[in-house]
Each structure stands twice: as structure tokens, then as C-alpha cells.
Task: inverse folding
């Protein structure tokens, strides 16, 4: 058994930290020039940097841990909890990336006053700025820190408070110094280091357990799930096998996830982190290509090293109570000196990439969309950058406090998904339907937050002592049911509010249409705009479907080949190739379809 860091391991880890801090110092002066430099690198990134940064920042220290926990508890099919977002990701590629870049805002929240008018738009901008900077991003930061704490506990035996303090201190220093420039530059190295670390661990584990064939044979025998451990899709009979009602079973969850979650979530139109990189791209075409590269790497290239290690952990640690602890336990069990340091450095890379991104984005929301817009409007650019750096420190302190209160990455993840579900359809429709207004968004956010919050409180059980003693049994609803109820309730609320309130002023809608040239139902507004409407919506929708097939089929095909099913694996890869041909053709047509002003 390995697991004790040698001098070589510490040298590798120290070298990575020195590199990161050096980049932070190098870009400190450039990042401090202006808000645009500090938050979106002056809008001048090529697609391969912006796209790789998307990939790196979406892989944090929590990702392999939570994937391992899901595989151990529900099998490979449990990963549809995040695989289902592929449809939304490809929607961003073909229908939204170029629109975001044309908008030329600094944050996704700033779009509210470009798209809407009046006091309601200002209220929404302030509300969303605080909402995203505070609870949403701080909870995200917290679950990333929970994962790093678990890793440090297993490898070093470090107390949670000490682990949180060390992780928060290193990441905050780096983020405060370099801003977005440092984030995207180091993301290139962090992506490589993190992927190499994951692949090396998977290779070592598979080799020690006798190869891929032996792993595929041993893992189901060691798991209480049996053959369902290796199934890529849940079956209708799985609920009966687990002795639970159908709507509590995995097949019902799968249906809800693939038909609803991807468009209902707050990231349905890209989400703050991805949108930030679209906005920093050199032009519309680079924004599209960056988002495409992200979705290919995120879904088709990255999952299987983690899943193979998760399957190996079932064989090595079949009785481990906390499945999320299995991944760091495998690191400690299998890796020799030197390689152990590389993998620990890869976790630091993943951790810092995600934390720095969310700190930078939280500061952008607070400073650009609240402080600069409503409090101090005419200060210097350097003043706003200074306030942004101070805000980063404050947000990290809040996130560290949340991290100390939780020990489950999966539960934090599911709570955040439910808490922010129900708003995604509004975020998509505001690009395609002129009737959406600011009150639509406000109603969707409040309704989904309240409904999900109440359901999670009821799920934990309620005890009241005043004005009379009440004890309610915990609500036995799984996450998919909570998601379904939250989305249905919030949709009814925001639709009612939309038709009960006045539309956005025609002047604002016409200005928005002229600048962005969106697709969809803009009839009366498009007629007044005097610009040629965007063309090719049908072809873009076809490319969206083909792209989704390409990504998911490639992911499933690779998995089938690794687990010894060459025929089905080959069929999936053939479907992926067909989708790739369609996608390539549409990308070549993108410049012509984007209209007279588009550079994409």
C-alpha cells in the first residue's frame, strides 16, 4: 500500500503551486487595468483557450469523488444526473453562443438591462447579481471545498477546518492577483495535469486488478447492484429490484432528467461560467467553436477514467460507507511515489481552476451588476478592480463556512440543481420570444427557490414548538420528484406573471433585436427593426440534435469498448461519426448563416 507522500511527491506539488502563483503575479498588472481585462481578458481569446478553460473549470476536485459515489450507489447509469445536460450544452453551441457574443455584455446578468426596460429591469439586475454572487456561487464553491477536504483527510489526515483554511487561502491569493487572465492561462496547464492524473490512476487501477475484462467481471460480483452496476441505462424493472415505488426508481429519474432537467436548470442558456468564456472569445465564430470543444471534451473524453476507478473501488473497498471517499482511498492504495504527487497536484489544479473561476465570476456580478450600476457609478477602473479583489476574499470566507457545515457533495449538488430549476426555460425563451419580460425572470427565480427550499425542509422533517408543538415526518420524495414539482410549479407562476404584466417597451426590444438579431418569435419587433432577420434556425436545430447525438454516442461508444462490448460500442461510434459530419457541415456554414453583421 502506498499513500505516504515522498520528497519527490512534495516537489511535484510545490512546482505546480509555484507555477500557479508565478502566473498570478505575472498577470496582476494587466488584470488590474480595467474591468474588461480583469473579468473577460479584453474579449480577445481564441477558441482553443476559451474552450479549454470551460473544460478545466467544469472539472473540480469534487467531480471524480461524486461520480465515484454515484457509480457505487446507483451504477454507471446514475451519471445521467449530469450527462443529461449534454442537450443543453449543444443548444448553447448552435443557438446561443453567437448571440451571447453579439450582446457584448460583461456578465450574463448585464443582459437584463439590454433585453428589458424600466425599473423592473434594474430590480432584476440587482436581484440576479446578488442571487448568483451569493447563494448560487457560494454553494458551488462550498461543494468543491468539501471534496478537497475529503481528499486531504484521506491522504494527510488533516482536520476539516485546517483543510478548508489551506485550500481557501491558496486559491484566493491566486484569484485575487491575476483575475480572469490568470484563470484562463493556467487552465491550459490545469486541464492537462488533471487529465493526465485521472488517466494514470485509472491505468494503474485497471492494471493491478487484471485488466479491463477482469474489472468488468469482478465489479458486478462485488456490488450489491450486480449486473445493474455496468448498465448504461436504467430499466423499468429496476424499481422493483430495489423494492421502491416506480416514481422513486432509477428509470423514472432517467426520464425526468433527459426530458426536463437540461432545459429547466439555471444553466440552460450556457450559465455564468460558460457565458463568461463566450463573452471573452475573439468573435462569434470563436465563441461557437469554444463551446463545441468544451462539450466534446466534457462528455465524450473525460468521464471514463473516473468511472473505471469507481468500478475498481467497488472491488477493493466494497463495504466503504461513504462512496465519495472511495476515489481518494484508491489514490492512497494504488499510486507509487512521484505519481502520487502528480495526482495530488492534478486535484489542486482542478480545485484551483473551479474556485478561481467562481470567485472571479461572483466578484463580477457584485461589482459590475450591483456596486458599479447602483452604488458608485463614476469611479476609476482600478477602483472597481480593487473592490473586485476584496469581494473575492469575502466570498471565499462565506463559502468556507458553508463547506464546514456539509459533508456530502452529492446532496449539495442536487439541492443547488433543484433550488435553481424552473428558471431555465425563461432564460432560453428570452432569446426567442419578445413577450418575456423582467417580471417573468423574477417570478421564475423566486418560485423555484421557494418551492425547492420548502420541499427540502419538509424532506428533512419539521419540528415546531410554537405556537403549538408540531412534528412532521420527513417527506419521502427523491430528487427527480422534487425537480418535477419545482419546475411545474415555477412554470405556472412565471407564465401567469408574464401575461399579467406589461411587455418590454418596443424601443428597448427593437434596440436589442438590432444588436443581437435573435432567432424565433419576434414578428412585430423584427418588422420595426429595419435589419435582416437571422437565418437558418431550422438548420441550427438540426445541427443541435446531431451534435447531441455525436457527443452522447461518442461517450457511450467509448464506454462500451472499454467494458468489452465491441459491437455495441462500434454502433455508438458510427452514430457519433454521422453526427460529426452534420456538425462539421453546419460549422462551415456558420459564417453565411449568421447574417450581414455576424463575424461567426
Result:
Amino acid at each position: 500500500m502506498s499513500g505516504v507522500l515522498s520528497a519527490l511527491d512534495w516537489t511535484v506539488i510545490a512546482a505546480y503551486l509555484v507555477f500557479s502563483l508565478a502566473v498570478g503575479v505575472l498577470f496582476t498588472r494587466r488584470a488590474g487595468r480595467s474591468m474588461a481585462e480583469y473579468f473577460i481578458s479584453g474579449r480577445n481569446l481564441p477558441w482553443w483557450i476559451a474552450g479549454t478553460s470551460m473544460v478545466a473549470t467544469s472539472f473540480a476536485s469534487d467531480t471524480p469523488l461524486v461520480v465515484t459515489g454515484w457509480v457505487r450507489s446507483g451504477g454507471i447509469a446514475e451519471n445521467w444526473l449530469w450527462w443529461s445536460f449534454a442537450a443543453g450544452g449543444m443548444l448553447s453551441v448552435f443557438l446561443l453562443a453567437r448571440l451571447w457574443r453579439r450582446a457584448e455584455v460583461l456578465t450574463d446578468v448585464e443582459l437584463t438591462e439590454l433585453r428589458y426596460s424600466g425599473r423592473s429591469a434594474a430590480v432584476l439586475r440587482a436581484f440576479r447579481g446578488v442571487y448568483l454572487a451569493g447563494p448560487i456561487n457560494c454553494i458551488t464553491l462550498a461543494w468543491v471545498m468539501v471534496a478537497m477536504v475529503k481528499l486531504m483527510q484521506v491522504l494527510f489526515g488533516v482536520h476539516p477546518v485546517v483543510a478548508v483554511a489551506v485550500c481557501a487561502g491558496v486559491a484566493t491569493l491566486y484569484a485575487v492577483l491575476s483575475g480572469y487572465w490568470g484563470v484562463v492561462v493556467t487552465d491550459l496547464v490545469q486541464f492537462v495535469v488533471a487529465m493526465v492524473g485521472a488517466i494514470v490512476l485509472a491505468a494503474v487501477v485497471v492494471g493491478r486488478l487484471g485488466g479491463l475484462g477482469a474489472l468488468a467481471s469482478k465489479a458486478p460480483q462485488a456490488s450489491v447492484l450486480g449486473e445493474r452496476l455496468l448498465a448504461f441505462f436504467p430499466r423499468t424493472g429496476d424499481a422493483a429490484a430495489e423494492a421502491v415505488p416506480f416514481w422513486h426508481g432509477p428509470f423514472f429519474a432517467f426520464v425526468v432528467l433527459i426530458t426536463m432537467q437540461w432545459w429547466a436548470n439555471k444553466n440552460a442558456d450556457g450559465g455564468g461560467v460558460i457565458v463568461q468564456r463566450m463573452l471573452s472569445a475573439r468573435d462569434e465564430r470563436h465563441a461557437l467553436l469554444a463551446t463545441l470543444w468544451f462539450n466534446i471534451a466534457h462528455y465524450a473524453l473525460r468521464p471514463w477514467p473516473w468511472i473505471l476507478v469507481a468500478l475498481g473501488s467497488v472491488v477493493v473497498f466494497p463495504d466503504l460507507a461513504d462512496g465519495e471517499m472511495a476515489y481518494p482511498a484508491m489514490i492512497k492504495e494504488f499510486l507509487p511515489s512521484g505519481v502520487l504527487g502528480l495526482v495530488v497536484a492534478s486535484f489542486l489544479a482542478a480545485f484551483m481552476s473551479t474556485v478561481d473561476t467562481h470567485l472571479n465570476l461572483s466578484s463580477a456580478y457584485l461589482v459590475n451588476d450591483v456596486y458599479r450600476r447602483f452604488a458608485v457609478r463614476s469611479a476609476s477602473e482600478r477602483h472597481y478592480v480593487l473592490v473586485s479583489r476584496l469581494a473575492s476574499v469575502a466570498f471565499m470566507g462565506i463559502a468556507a463556512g458553508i463547506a464546514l457545515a456539509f459533508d456530502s457533495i452529492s446532496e449539495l449538488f442536487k439541492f443547488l440543481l433543484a433550488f435553481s430549476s424552473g428558471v431555465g426555460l425563461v432564460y432560453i425563451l428570452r432569446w426567442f420570444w419578445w413577450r418575456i419580460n423582467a417580471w417573468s425572470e423574477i417570478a421564475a427565480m423566486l418560485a423555484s427557490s421557494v418551492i425547492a427550499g420548502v420541499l427540502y425542509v419538509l424532506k428533512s422533517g419539521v419540528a415546531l414548538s410554537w405556537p403549538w408543538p408540531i412534528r412532521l415526518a420527513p417527506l419521502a420524495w427523491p430528487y427527480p420528484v422534487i425537480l418535477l414539482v419545482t419546475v411545474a410549479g415555477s412554470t405556472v407562476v412565471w407564465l401567469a406573471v408574464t401575461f399579467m404584466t406589461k411587455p418590454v417597451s418596443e424601443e428597448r426590444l427593437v434596440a436589442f433585436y438590432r444588436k443581437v438579431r435573435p432567432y424565433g418569435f419576434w414578428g412585430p419587433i423584427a418588422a420595426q427593426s429595419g435589419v435582416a432577420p437571422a437565418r437558418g434556425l431550422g438548420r441550427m436545430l438540426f445541427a443541435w440534435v446531431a451534435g447531441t447525438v455525436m457527443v452522447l454516442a461518442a461517450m457511450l461508444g467509448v464506454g462500451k469498448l472499454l467494458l468489452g462490448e465491441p459491437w455495441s460500442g462500434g454502433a455508438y461510434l458510427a452514430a457519433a461519426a454521422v453526427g460529426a459530419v452534420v456538425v462539421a457541415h453546419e460549422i462551415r456554414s456558420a459564417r453565411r448563416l449568421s447574417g450581414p453583421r455576424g463575424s461567426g
Observations:
- The domain at 1-74+96-231+269-408 is CATH 1.20.1730.10 (Sodium/glucose cotransporter).
